């Protein structure tokens, strides 16, 4: 008889030299010899065992590549041996073929039950045996391949998770007052929650949902979060940030992948929230008093990454908030969660639970509980994310409260009066640095020059630790010049909630139509021995306003009459001086380095 | 879930029926259904009468179909039930597709 070349079986096993090992278990010597002859001819090397106990011993000494098992044997039968071998084998797959004289159907079924992969009844034809061996080899190969892929997937996921956590999650602000549930359907979530404080002390929060879930969905979160953080840190406004993310994702994501988002920006004075909803369920504003839904902000835009032709600026909704109101962000995984009966959790159930949540109770917690009761052990189809953000000072950065009276900045008037900075008494460096920019009215509707100015100042002068205050100062001066100078808006309109939104819609209208006038910003910085000072002059082409209001700024009417802007400027600067007719202002901001 | 495509006799229009859950598991079938027709030539009608549910992956597939169809108004979404309509509405897909 022609012996199949040794390398054949080895090749089938992917081995270079060693023959694959077959363990033959039978109490009959003749049966073992028959199998040995057959298997050796097929390229195997053979180990024999006369009963179950010997088989287990042989297995423990060195696990074979395939096992041929008799059923009825002395000491320990094949059923018991296979049961134990399967326990020892754990995750590795070793094909086990039962060879038995039994013909009883139940006995044959039991072969599979205890962990065998197939059975043959004796006497065995060499042709059938060979076919079965091939079949076993094929299954083994598939098994190994799946095992390898699974291992690789796990490894990739773990590595990706490390990166994801480092880039996307780790830079979020740690805020205990924001309650969240983030329940990914797989190891990786296509949902992502991003939080960051802007230099203006506003807080930006984005809850987004990428198409699909798992690793591919999570990939898009990396560029999205980078843009979100970089632009927030530089002081870009919410609509510019959303446009930035949209542009980035449009260029990166393949067709068919997109990013639905809810984005909110809570103002640092806790007066309003600026929000946009691009393809997500409603953003809900819950009343602090009743817990009822006070306002909903529905989707009014395509998700991000689909089209560049979206005017995000006009899609933002500005709402007045009261202290203690809560904002609920939610992904569609909540309403689309299914239970074992294939019923959806649904919007109705979701909102009923919200209505039944008493003020003071956490909406997120009651929904989490209801969801768990509803879904029980049903498998989760989609990522579930919920975030409940209270409109309270805790969400604002630490610096927001401290800045105004932070003496380290030596900016408050009281400090400068107590020990006047030497800047006013000479010691001014020889070469002040000066630059100015003129912004024509027609170009102001779609631009925000403040982040650029700040970056410019910083590139030239450093001043890292003054960034936030300078940002606040410049924004305040710029907005005053724009709103009251060029746009001729009356800030007393803002005192009522209706007036508040009327003010902003009027502002939008006038800004869009603005095609004349200018705002000129001039900045001069001086180095001094102790630190430095910056003189900021802002001039607008408006008519100016009644300077008597400013003269009253020291009286207690200040908040009512002039809004908080001028009060804020006074508290931050060494001096604030308006010039007739009120369209020019000069402020001096100074600092001491050694403090 | 099952996907069926049928071409009109004049070879100008292809109707794709999706029944059951229209989600990620339909991807192969759905893209197979339209890729057999050349790019940019047919009007595609996706009949959603028997679609009980859509998720974001299926919306992604509609965007891929839109790219394949490649000119304005060449993908029509038909007969969507209320909940599917709501999902399309939330994503503002009426800006990209003709919803009938």
Automatic annotation (TrEMBL), chain A:
PANTHER family: STAGE II SPORULATION PROTEIN E (PTHR43156:SF2), STAGE II SPORULATION PROTEIN E-RELATED (PTHR43156). InterPro entries: Bact_Sigma-Reg, CheY-like_superfamily, HATPase_C_sf, HATPase_dom, PPM-type-like_dom_sf, PPM-type_phosphatase-like_dom, Sig_transdc_resp-reg_receiver. The modification 4-aspartylphosphate is found at residue 70. CDD domains: HATPase_RsbW-like. The keyword Phosphoprotein applies. SMART domains: PP2C_SIG, REC. GO terms for biological process: phosphorelay signal transduction system. The lineage of its organism: Bacteria, Pseudomonadati, Pseudomonadota, Gammaproteobacteria, Chromatiales. It comes from Sedimenticola selenatireducens. Residues 21-137 form the Response regulatory domain. Residues 410-424 have a biased composition (Low complexity). GO terms for molecular function: phosphatase activity. Gene3D superfamilies: 3.40.50.2300, Histidine kinase-like ATPase, C-terminal domain, PPM-type phosphatase domain. This is SpoIIE family protein phosphatase. Pfam families: HATPase_c_2, Response_reg, SpoIIE. Residues 402-429 are annotated as: Disordered. The keyword Hydrolase applies. Keywords: Hydrolase, Phosphoprotein.
UniProtKB/TrEMBL annotation, chain B:
CDD domains: STAS_anti-anti-sigma_factors. Gene3D superfamilies: STAS domain (3.30.750.24). Residues 14-100 form the STAS domain. One of its GO terms (molecular function) is anti-sigma factor antagonist activity. Pfam families: STAS (PF01740). This is STAS domain-containing protein. The lineage of its organism: Bacteria, Pseudomonadati, Pseudomonadota, Gammaproteobacteria, Chromatiales.
């Amino acid at each position: 008889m022609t012996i199949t070349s040794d390398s054949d079986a080895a090749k089938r096993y992917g081995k270079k030299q060693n023959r694959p090992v077959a363990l033959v278990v039978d109490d009959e010597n003749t049966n073992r010899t028959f199998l040995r002859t057959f298997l050796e001819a097929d390229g195997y090397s053979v180990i024999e065992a006369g009963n179950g106990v010997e088989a287990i011993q042989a297995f423990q000494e060195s696990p074979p590549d395939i096992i041929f098992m008799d059923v009825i044997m002395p000491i320990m039968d094949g059923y018991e041996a296979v049961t134990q071998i399967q326990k020892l084998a754990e995750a590795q797959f070793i094909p086990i073929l039962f060879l038995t004289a039994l013909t009883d159907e139940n006995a044959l079924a039991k072969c599979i039950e205890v962990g065998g992969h197939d059975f043959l009844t004796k006497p065995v034809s060499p042709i059938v045996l060979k076919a079965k061996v091939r079949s076993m080899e094929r299954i083994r190969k598939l098994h190994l391949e799946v095992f390898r892929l699974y291992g690789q997937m796990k490894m990739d996921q773990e590595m990706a998770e490390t990166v994801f956590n480092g880039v996307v999650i780790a830079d979020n602000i740690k805020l205990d007052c924001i309650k969240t549930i983030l329940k990914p359907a797989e190891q990786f979530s296509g949902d992502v929650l991003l939080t960051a404080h802007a230099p203006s002390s506003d807080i930006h929060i984005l809850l987004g949902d990428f198409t699909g879930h798992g690793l591919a969905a999570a990939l898009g979160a990396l560029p999205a979060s980078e843009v979100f953080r970089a632009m927030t840190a530089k002081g870009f406004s919410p609509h510019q940030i959303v446009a930035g993310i949209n542009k980035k994702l449009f260029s990166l994501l393949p067709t068919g992948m997109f990013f639905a988002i809810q984005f909110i920006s809570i103002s640092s004075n806790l007066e309003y929230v600026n929000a946009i909803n691009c393809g997500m369920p409603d953003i809900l504003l819950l009343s602090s008093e009743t817990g009822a839904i006070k306002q909903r902000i529905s989707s009014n835009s395509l998700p991000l990454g689909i089209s560049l032709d979206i005017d995000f600026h006009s899609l933002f909704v500005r709402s007045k908030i009261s202290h203690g109101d809560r904002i609920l962000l939610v992904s569609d995984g909540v309403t689309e969660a299914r239970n074992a009966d294939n019923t959806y959790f649904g919007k109705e159930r979701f909102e009923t639970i919200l209505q039944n949540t008493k003020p003071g109770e956490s909406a997120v917690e009651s929904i989490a509980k209801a969801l768990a009761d509803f879904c029980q052990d049903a498998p989760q189809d989609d990522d579930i994310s919920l975030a409940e953000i209270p409109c309270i000072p805790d969400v604002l950065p630490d610096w927001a409260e401290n800045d105004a009276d932070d003496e380290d900045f030596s900016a408050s008037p009281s400090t400068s009066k107590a020990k006047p900075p030497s800047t006013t008494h000479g010691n001014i460096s020889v070469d002040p640095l000066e630059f100015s920019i003129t912004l024509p009215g027609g170009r102001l509707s779609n631009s925000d020059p403040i982040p650029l100015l700040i970056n410019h100042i910083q590139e030239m002068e450093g001043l890292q630790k003054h960034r936030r205050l300078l940002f606040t100062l410049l924004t305040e001066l710029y907005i005053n010049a724009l709103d009251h100078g060029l746009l001729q808006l009356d800030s007393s309109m803002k005192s009522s909630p209706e007036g508040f939104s009327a003010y902003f819609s009027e502002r939008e209208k006038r800004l869009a139509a603005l095609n004349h006038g200018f705002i000129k910003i001039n900045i001069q910085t001086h180095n001094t021995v102790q630190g430095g000072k910056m003189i900021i002059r802002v001039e607008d082409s408006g008519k100016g306003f009644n300077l008597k209001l400013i003269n009253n700024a020291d009286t207690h009417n200040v908040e009512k009459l002039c809004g908080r802007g001028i009060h804020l400027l006074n508290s931050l600067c060494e001096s604030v001086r308006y010039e007739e007719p009120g369209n020019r202002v000069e402020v001096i901001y100074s600092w001491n380095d050694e403090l | 879930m099952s996907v069926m495509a049928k071409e009109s006799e004049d070879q100008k229009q292809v109707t794709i029926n999706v029944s059951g859950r229209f989600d990620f598991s339909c991807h192969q079938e759905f893209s197979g259904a339209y890729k057999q027709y050349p790019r940019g030539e047919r009007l595609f009608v996706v009949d959603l009468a028997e679609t009980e549910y859509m998720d974001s992956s299926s919306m992604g597939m509609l965007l891929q179909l839109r790219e394949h169809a490649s000119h304005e108004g060449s993908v029509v979404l038909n007969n969507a039930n209320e909940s599917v309509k709501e999902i399309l509405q939330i994503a503002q897909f009426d800006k990209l597709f003709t919803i009938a």
